[in-house]
Amino acid sequence: MPERISRGNLRQPHPPYLRRTKSSVLAVLVALAVGVMASIVAPPAPAAAACANEVACENAKPGAAPGEWDVAGDGDADIQGFATDISVDRGNRIDFKVDTDARAYSITVYRTGWYQGLGARKITTISPSAPLPQLQPTCRSDASTQLFDCGNWGVSATWNVPATAVSGVYVALLQRADTGGRSHIIFVVRDDDSDSEVLLQTADTTWQAYNGYGGSSFYFGGQNGRSYEASYNRPFSTRADNNGRDFYFSSEYAQVRFLERNGYDVSYLAGVDTDRFGELLLNHQVFISVGHDEYWSGRQRANIEAARDAGVHLQFLGGNDGYWRTRYAPSIDASATAYRTLVCYKETRSNAKIDPSTEWTGTWRDPRFAPTSAGANRPENALIGTLYVANHNDLAVTVSSDEGKLRLWRGTSLTNLAAGSSAQLAPHTIGYESNEDLDNGWRPPGLIRLSTTTGPTPEYLQDYGNTVRPGTTTHHLTLYRAASGALVFSAGSIQWPWGLDQEHDGAGAPADARMQQAQVNLLADMGALATTLQGGLVAATPSTDHTAASAVINAPAAGAQIPNGATVDVTGTASDVGGRVAGVEVSTDGGASWHPATGTTNWSYRYVQHGRGTSDIRVRAIDDSANIPAQPATVATTVIGPFSVFGEQVPAIVDSGDTSGVELGLRFTPTDDGYVSGVRFYKSSLNTGAHVGSLWSPQGERLASVAFADETASGWQRAVFNPAVAVSAGSRYTISYTAPRGHYSVQGNAFWSAGIGYDPLLVDGGFGAPPAAVYGAPGAFPSNSFGSSNYFVDAIFESTDSTPLAATNLRPPGGSTSVPLHTTIGATFLKNVVSASVTFNVADDVGAAVAGTTSYDPTTRTAAFTPNAPLREFVAYSVTLSATPAGSTSPPAQVAAWGFTTVRPTPAPGACPCRLFNDSTTPAVLEVADSAAVTLGVRFTPSVDGTVTGVAFYKGAGNTGQHVGTLWSATGAQLATATFSGESTSGWQTVDFAEPIDVTAGTSYVAAYRTTVGKYSATPGAFSGSGVSYGPLSAGTQAGAYTYGTGFPGNASTTSYLVDVVFEKGADPIAIVSTTPAAGAMGVDRASAISATLSVPITSGYELAVSSRGTAIAGATALSADRTTVTFTPAAPLPNGATINVALTGVRSDSGSVLATKRWSFATVDSTGATTAYSLFGSATPATPATDDGSSVELAVAFQASQPGEITAIRFYKGAGNGGTHTGSLWNDAGDRIASVTFANETETGWQTALLESPVVLEAGQVVVVSYLAPQGRYAATGGYFQNPAANGPLVAPAEGNGRYRYGAGGTLPTSTWNRTNYFVDVLFTTSTLAPVTVTSTSPTSGQQDAATGERVSAQLSATPVAAPTLVVTGPAGAVAGQTAWDAPTNTVSFTPDAPLAWSTPYTATVGVGGQTPPGGTWDFTTRAEPQAVSIFSATAGPARTDWDDATGIQLGVRFTSSVAGVVSGIRFFKVAGDANTHTVRLWAGSGGTALATATSIGETASGWQTVYFAAPVPIDANTEYRASYFTPRGRYAADPGALAEAVVAAPLSTLPVGGVYLYGTGFPSGTAPHNYWADVMFTPGE
User: Fold this and answer.
1) pTM of the model as a whole
2) What is the annotated signal peptide range for this record (predicted)?
């Protein structure tokens, strides 16, 4: 058996079979013996002529009852002994050495066999020759090997074996005269002159391996945990362990009983003898190894192989046979007798060559630590046909109806099994260790399978002998015919003989006549016939079938072109005359190796095509006499490129489970000069992140790299090098890829035995070969190896370079930011091009072309474009490079396209947020040649109190991977940390902390970031002298900071690592919190009071002055009780339709802080109705009141009016820090400035308004751009605002091209846009009062009783109102929370509730215009009753995966049917965190793509199930396909791969197979997938 190995270090003991108790067995056999002896009195010895052979004659003699000769277990410990040799040739002497304190004992010799079922016959009695009591000396021992050798004992008795003795397995029964205690000495009597038909070898080497006499065995004991040497000079202590399963009286005894019962001409030898007397095997027709024959020496196996090759038939009637390789050494007693020490260091268990001999003594199959010449890397199945894999299993040999008709089972009931059925034979006959027929490259040609049993095993071997796991084993009886004509049979199980005879140690069952007949048949086919065939069996004769079966190949067709790496299915038929087809095997490498096909008369075989050029597929059928045809059927094919090592091979372990980032590679050698055009790797579903493939030279230089794109979720991924890389024949290259999050595929022990030898790519393997698969740090050259693992990385090889023209070294790098304005744009072609064809097209973000000059250097293949003028600040530019390949006459075609963004303008001095460096700061060294992980920082000191909101660093394109920014105190305390995201390829990167961190003036801090790949930027000497300072920040001498550890960067340096801090100055001690009316408010009620609220209580002396058109407005001023709010109450209504100017002066806090004069303005309503004033945004506030961009920039909005009027003022929203002088401008669509105004008397924050000196007339439909200059940045913004047009009254700001900006000092029309952002620039527009409005239609309609709960409530007006209307919905609980929206182009006001309305509930809707309700503006409706709906998925069901992120709009859904008709009232879907807040659901007809219903969600939760109901239920038909989908504009969603591959039934609903649907868009979701996207329906049957 293999070493006691398991999931940990020790395998769990398997409950042993209960051996039949000796008392009961002996009682039965004694009774039987008495009965026999009573009826047969002293029969005469049979005459020689009456017997066919010596064994038949011997077994006709009376046997001895087991009670007479057998012992329990190892016998009595007080009398033990051994023979001085394990075997003796008859006619020679054998000595016994006995250790006992008995003064008298007897020695009786018995021969084991059938003997009427009694199992042994008494041969003779021997008297001890030594004086008694004979006290033996202490045995010799060797602590280093745990050898225990009792060869120094004295001889106790001698038996001169008669020359007429019959070869067999003998026991000498030792029995004390005083206590009756007894034990056995077992030995073999050979007949070296015999030419018996059958020669049976005992498994004595295994008996000794398990022999614990002396305290150690090959399985336990001593400092080594096991012995390395086992002596034959000691008694056996083996039978008592595990019910004797590893000793003679288990399987071997059962086999001997069967053979001798049936009168076979058989002789015997020991396992030792097969080594030392191997030539004896050639004297016989059949050689049998039986039972647990686990330990073979090198010469023993060689002699068995030589016998096979000389035509001797072999039967391996055991399992785990020939597993460990051994050698022999002399005894360590004074005699130094050869062959008395069995040596096995079990080097496989030590994972090293530890045997001092050059011979390998590990498992025969282990290739790792010794060459084949030393005995390693020779799997057992090369000889036996099967090899050990399963331990502690307990199964029965099972035969199918087809297998039952094979020749082996002739004469049994198995020949008549019903088609498709199978039969189990005797229990326990597969165990306790068993073999399998594995296609491992060593499988003998022509091997056929004669039975098939599949079942569980608690220990399935995973490697060469060290690791087991629970699994499933598939066992076969096998047979093959060697080239010599010898048949080789493998039972593949230790307990096969238990089916031949019931009497043996261990729990057996009655013998199985079908197995007995099979054994008779097999021996007959090998030329050995039974002479005393037991009743119930049929005499068998050798096979006369010498005609081989024939095979026909149906596919592939002759001449087929097969791509290298493709999976190929070979199919065909086979037939036989005179027998049956028992197996089909296929060769795809010209007959060098053969592999078993599936099926017999109709067969198939699947393989991955390797090699190149002319190839053929060979097939041959083997019949049940194991005849192999001389010529196989052949189909010629051609293998075409491109070429790879692994093709479509699927890894055994797709996901290693290792989560560490790693570079994984494969070393390979081309057989010819050629090109590596790409890289491949096998991906698991969790192997995510950015994958980069690389090709490395033999010296470790990176020759090419490429980022993988358009990857699938799992499986083989491919990326192309452009251009392909030339490689030389015979040079060893490395191909690799980066797995940043691990979860790579792996196959352990892949190259220990052999490499891969298919042209044109070779991979090293075998003993002594350099490692083939390698790994290293992410992005670095991989040079480490582990366990000869294969990581499934592959090269793509081609004879010629077929890659298209491409360019590299793009300048500036694609996706880079902070690009200087005087940059020269360039690239390097990877192939020669026509010089005159090189063309650059450079454009800004609005498509305006950049003028410049193109140049090309054909020597370096470098193209450059120099703009005629500096590029504009903070503008995204696009570049397209086109050219014609050299030698081509085609017009220039696009070769590369990329984009970059220029630097931001330098902020005004003192404007914050503040940084040490500007966006235009660049490093002296873009990428330092350091690939180690490192933390880099800057030590800085603020001169004022404030907060740090984030950190920044300058990045080169090679500084990849995840970056983490951290703020530290000067003493190393971590104050904040954040992970960078959304990085550009190169340039300044910034990350914000979750919360600002307070910092103190004059105190030093360290801002830092960590890179895992090095390649950081640097400017040496930047922090020498006085260092660097800007605004309130300074970094003195040696302000550079770093550490190669993971903590605080405590090392100082004069080098700047281009790390920066984002700093905000502290707020003023006193400030205005809010004003009423708000600055810039419009349509203010003339009776309104005016107030300002301060941040802290103030003292007396303040003044709040109000004026209009230069005239003061009378009123009273008061201070609130908490002294924070100043209120002005006018003595009369404010002027009509006027701009009201307010000034707050003389404000002082209790602590003495003084507030500078604050001014703001607003406009009152025109109560005469003659004119109406409008603005686009009214009193709206931005999502970001002040960005952290401190650069000077002009912000703008384009708009038009639907009716004529006048622009009287310009407005903008001001946030904190948006300082300096602001200038507002109006521009026509030609880009001319038509008006401007300087803002004065601004408030600290809020809307600012500046009246134009003269109103600007605006015609209906005329497009105007309004802008203002923010010289210190910090402008207001709401990203994505212009996803839809903005409108109020007659003013409309279109969505496309809106939200404009232009960096610089102003004076030029802004044209750039980003993310449809609104920068909150506005106008005051007056026009004649519009006609009164009425409500013309509503939804739901007035009085409607079945209104949908999830629909928006809306009303259409007859005309544009004087002010944006409102819509309020009230219910039993009061006003419904929600949002009102006004769509000016359609004159529609709508109300979207924050959550769906309640079921079966009355509501009232009311429209308001200027505080009044227009005619028809109030109506009632009632929501419909909640439907009693069912769904496909339960309310508690949810996805396993919620991390899919396509970052683009996608529609996801499910294909479903219902077994009954009904209605769909809505759709539900599972929302993941981070997805959009609004989704659109649709119900589609399954064919034709018609949308049956659409609805938009409202009141979604952050995640989980969302339900959206349609305006009306949609009827659907029974047994008809429909599709339910939802559209996510954000593209984050849940998906469980493969979960809808099969139908999911929730009656009456059911998904269809391949039930997922999707579309990147809003149309019919035509794409199908087996994935569950967690979309569902709300279905009510029968309505």
Assistant:
1) 0.60
2) none
